[in-house]
Amino acid sequence: MEMKAALLLGVAERTRPVSMTALMAAIGIARSNANWYQIRNTKPLAIVVIGGLISAALLTLLLFPLVFQWGYQIVQQQKFRGFKKTNFEDYEN
After folding, report:
1. Angle at the Cα of 62 (from 56 to 27), degrees rounded to 5?
2. How far is CA 37 from the centre of its chain?
3. I need a labelling partner for 55 at 20 to 30 A (CA). Which of 21, 45, 72, 85 fits?
């Protein structure tokens, strides 16, 4: 399987579980802050947690596959140029 196709398949496979987890946690935290007497104490923490869930979902679904593809392309270019792999056995005592 080609790298781009594998990445697209992996992202498509993980989109629903990651988004549902982040969405349900965000709704649960927002719902727990619905009481008017708790808003003053827990609203800042809820905002941070919901922001973290959203950013983690975006990183998982968008940024990490792009970084992986970028790194894979660099490795493939080095193999094509003829760079030798480091043989760590040469450095042993």
Report:
1. 40
2. 35
3. 72
- Mean pLDDT (the chain) is 78
Reported as a single tens digit per residue, the pLDDT across 57-66 is: 889 888 998 8
pTM of the model: 0.60
Axis crossing angle, helix 64-81 with helix 3-32, rounded to the nearest 10? 160
Cα 71 to its chain centre, rounded Å, is 15
Nearest to 61 by CA among 20, 2, 3: 20
Measured distance CA(53)–CA(23) in Å, rounded = 8
What are the structure tokens assigned to 75, written together?
Answer: 């490795």
- The whole-angstrom distance between residue 32's C-alpha and the CA centroid of its chain comes to 26
